[in-house]
Write a structure and sequence with these properties.
about 375 residues; alpha/beta; 7-stranded parallel beta sheet; 6-stranded parallel beta sheet; 14 helices; 13 strands
């Protein structure tokens, strides 16, 4: 464990991400009698984080905004936080905390560990915004004691563009809590085959491709249910409403617990264009369900082709339809075996304890 009575400050852009994917790390730090401070915009999970024993600071972070004045205010906020708390180490997650939290730590000469949970749309789309974002990343991550990446492609991209140098390592995403997402017996019946999509309903998550594929599949396989769980960002509202009205898909708003929905499904369908590492796919596989997902970095690592999942090309309705039909051609027993293989893969490669140990090791070195 880490040294006793250290002050550790965590910077992140939303409380749900901290509680859902890093709760076990918080527990490990608190159990070793460290003082843990968490900075994020307060939300639904804030009280739960406080009850764990963390000191929470309400900090405005615009997750997708590009207002330079607001970003400068965030930098100043982080500097003031560090000056007030005087942490022994700072852990940063997501783009803006990595960039502006990293800058603040450099200015205040505080050791920090950054976690690149994904490169983000600005980097993925290229052009001027990519160059600007990479420049900011380079400044923010330059003095980090360690920069963790969640997939090898992101790591190689940042090394190639000289954003980071030798102070980096690879994590298995955010890992998965194998107890919370326990193995579930596969559905006995396939009279209705439920394909589940969990997450924000937006273009970059491949929503439009799934909606088009659903219409094609339903015409040939009326027993297949395409079920979306999540809120929309507004970019696909019209298309989603039309598909729901046609009976092509079902839509359920955000749910605090998705495990029951995974348990009732036959597979998770994930059409994202880019990911750091898909937590949805990790949780699906841990629960013993196959995945049908794009072959992009952050998705393809979560399954073994034809063994625990089926991959398809991002942005291709035709290949998505092909993958779903390939899955539907399997017997229910074959699908169950795919789910079992996925669970074994999670136990071997993606146990969240792996990540906790790496953080503890780095914190000990500090």
């Amino acid at each position: 464990m880490t040294s006793v009575n250290k002050k550790i400050l965590i910077l992140i852009n939303y409380d749900a991400g901290l509680y859902s994917f890093r709760k076990e790390l918080l527990e490990a730090l608190i159990d070793s009698r460290n003082e843990v401070y968490c900075s994020f915009p307060f939300g639904d999970k804030t009280d739960k984080i406080k009850k764990m024993g963390c000191e929470c600071i309400n900090t405005k972070v615009s997750r997708r905004g590009t207002n330079p004045i607001e970003d400068f205010k965030l930098l100043l906020n982080y500097i003031n936080l560090i000056r007030k708390i005087k942490p022994d180490a700072v852990l940063t997650y997501t783009i803006k905390p990595n960039v502006y939290g990293g800058m603040a730590c450099r200015l205040m000469r505080v050791p920090y560990i950054a976690n690149v949970t994904g490169l983000g749309t600005a980097v993925q789309n290229g052009g001027l915004m990519q160059r600007l974002t990479l420049t900011l990343y380079k400044i923010g991550l330059k003095k980090a004691k360690m920069v963790f990446f969640q997939n090898a492609e992101n790591q190689q991209f940042m090394l190639k563009n000289k954003v980071v140098k030798g102070q980096c390592d690879l994590l298995p995403g955010s890992g998965v809590n194998l107890k919370q997402h326990c193995f579930e017996e596969y559905p006995k019946s396939d009279e209705q085959v439920v394909l589940l999509t969990i997450g924000r309903i937006m273009k970059d998550k491949g929503t439009n491709e799934i909606l088009q594929a659903a219409r094609i599949i339903k015409a040939e396989y009326p027993n297949v249910i395409f079920r979306f769980i999540g809120s929309t960002d507004g970019s696909c509202n019209e298309q989603l409403t039309q598909a729901v009205n046609e009976g092509a898909v079902e839509h359920i708003e955000n749910q605090p617990q998705v495990h029951t929905f995974i348990k009732e499904s036959h597979a998770t369908l994930h059409a994202s264009y880019h990911e750091g590492m898909s937590n949805v796919l990790l949780e699906t596989a841990a629960s013993g369900r196959p995945v049908i997902a794009t072959k992009v970095a952050g998705c393809r690592e979560t399954f073994d082709e034809g063994i625990s999942g089926i991959g398809f090309e991002a942005k291709s309705v035709e290949d998505l339809v092909r993958a779903v039909k390939e899955f539907l051609a399997l017997t229910n027993e074959q699908r169950a075996q795919m789910g079992l293989a996925g669970r074994k893969k999670m136990e071997k490669e993606f146990d969240r304890e792996i990540i906790i140990k790496k953080y503890i090791e780095i914190l000990k070195e500090l």
